[in-house]
Each structure stands twice: as C-alpha cells, then as structure tokens.
Amino acid sequence: MYPELFKISLPNFFSGFLGDYFTVYSYGFFIVIGAISGVSYVTYESKKLFNLSFDKINTLFLLLLIAAIVGGKVFLIFEKPSYYLDHPDALLTGKGFVFYGSLLFTIPAMLLYFKKQHLPILPMLDIMAITTCIVHFFGRIGCFMAGCCHGIEWHGPLAVVYSDPSCLAPLHTSMHPTQLYSASMILSILITLLFIKKHKSFNGQLFLLYLMFYAIGRSIIETFRGDLSRGYVIDIYLSHSQFISLLVFMAALYFYFKINPGKKSIS
Fold first, then answer.
1. What is the distance between the alpha carbons of residues 182 and 75, in angstroms, rounded to a whole number?
2. Of 167, 183, 219, 263, which residue is 20 to 30 A from 28 by alpha carbon distance?
3. Residue 39 contacts residue 57 (beta carbons within 8 Å)
4. Which UniProt keywords apply (predicted)?
5. HSE-CB for 3 with a 13 A CA cutoff
6. Does 141 have pLDDT greater than 50?
C-alpha cells in the first residue's frame, strides 16, 4: 500500500541534520488521528458525567501510552524469546508491538489511576472501552497502509498485493487483507457498544462486552494471519493471541455475571 503518505521538502538549513525531506508515515499518522479522536471522546464524556479536568485526561493518556508501549514490547518478547534476549536492542525500534500486551498492561494502569483520582471505576471503564475501539480502528488502518499484521496468501476477490519495498508485508504476494478485517470488526464492536450504551444494564457492561467481542473476533481473524512470527502455543492450531483471547473471554464472562444490577458493583 502506502507506508509513506507524503514528503515535505525542507529548507537547506535543515537538511544538514534532518535530511532533505520530512516524511509523514501512514502508520504514525493514523495513530495520531486515533489518539486525537480518543482524547476528544474521553474529554467529552468524562466532563459531561464527572467534570473531569483536561489535565487529568492528559495525564491518563500519558500513563496509558507508557503502559501500552511497555506491554506491547514485553509481549513481543514472548513471540521470539531467544532472539530478543540475544538482541535486546531490537525492542527499542518503533516496529513490533503486540496489541494484547498493550491492552493487558493498560487495564491495571487505568484501574490504579481511577482509584487514585477517586473516579468511579466501572463507568470510566465503559468510556475507555469505546475510546479503545476508536484508537484501535485507526491503528488497524495504519497497519493496512504499512503492511504489518498481514494475512496468509489468498487469491480471492478482496485480496491485496503489496509492492512498495517499504512495506512490512511480503511483496508481490496476493494475501488476505486481515488489517481491514480487524478494522471492520472493531468498527462493528464500536457501533454495537454505542447502541448498547443507551440501554446498558449496569456499569462496566460495555467494557466487559468489548473484551468478549474482541476476543471472539480476534480468534477468528487469527486463522487468516500470515505473520507467523507471532508464535503458537500449540503449533499451527492455537496461536499466542488465540490463547490470550480465550483467557480474556473467560475472565470477562466471569465478571459479566458477577457484576450485575442485582449485586453491588465496584465504584
């Protein structure tokens, strides 16, 4: 696709230390768009419901950013432990993140922050469920443009072929557009959560439904993924992400029935 959106020629006095061009990369661009959209949603909802200050929202997103980067890199180690133990510098590049690692690290970070700020935990988690969908949707569009998280070889009507040498996907190979499958799945979850939001039965419902919906969708899409470096728990049959999806689904299902209108919820 287009890993580089565009380049801007720089004045001569910048070229010595910045190069001749300033390059805007697709992945980073869509991540920024997603982050801005996510912050905007949290700001609107939290101010409306809890009068949360913009400074606290900024602090929350900074905390989540750090947790997401650390978690994404930690789970990346699990994919090829021996390689990253021998080449720890490879973890410092901008390439290579595991979404589940980021998600599972940001959840406790959110809980600690909400508790410290004396914010209602479950209502805030519902807000963050929709926020995560917004950010993740744009992130998957960025993945599609960059070629990461690509699919297995396929010659169907929706197949995509990457030809730009800067792409992370195999070149000149017809593949499943798994990034677009993921983006469509996340958008569907987002629309569903926005609908349920108006009729939800208890606080925390949106967050738990998000976890379950995503776990199911991710497990299905995994069967079409072609970036085999992510590794398997059971070779060929059960990938790391599918195994984590199973654990996430079971945990979310447990809390879904534990936290309900007939029982006292966490606040």
1. 20
2. 219
3. yes
4. Cell membrane, Membrane, Transferase, Transmembrane, Transmembrane helix
5. 13
6. yes
Amino acid at 234: I
pLDDT at residue 152 above 90?
yes
| DSSP-derived pairing of the beta strands 4-9 and 21-25 | antiparallel
What residues pair up with 24 in beta bridges, in sequence order?
6
The whole-angstrom separation of Cα 91 and Cα 55 is 31
Calculate mean pLDDT across residues 111-134: 94
Q: Which residues contact 63 (CB under 8 A, 6 or more apart)?
A: 109, 113
pLDDT digits (tens, 9 = 90+) for 59-76: 998 999 899 888 888 877
- Among 65-69, 216-220, 227-231, top mean pLDDT goes to 216-220
Instruction: Tell me how far apart the alpha carbons of residues 98 and 68 are, in angstroms, rounded to a whole number.
Output: 9
Q: What is the C-alpha separation between 22 and 105, in angstroms, rounded?
A: 33
Integer Cα distance of 8 and 226 in angstroms: 34
Q: Which two tokens stand for residue 154?
A: 């396929």
Q: For 14-23, 74-83, 127-136, which range has the lowest pLDDT when averaged over its residues? A: 14-23
Among 184, 191, 145, residue whose Cα is nearest residue 168: 145
Amino acid at position 237, single letter: Y
Question: For residue 113, how many other CB atoms are within 10 A of its CB?
Answer: 19
Distance, CA of 101 to CA of 239 (rounded, Å): 14
**Per-residue pLDDT at 35 exceeds 50:** yes
**pLDDT on residue 85:** 73
The rounded distance, in Å, linking the Cα atoms of 51 and 45 is 9
- Going by C-alpha positions, the residue among 70, 30, 207 that lies closest to residue 127 is 207
8 A C-beta contact, residue 21 and residue 7: yes
Strands 238-239 and 160-161, sheet pairing: unpaired
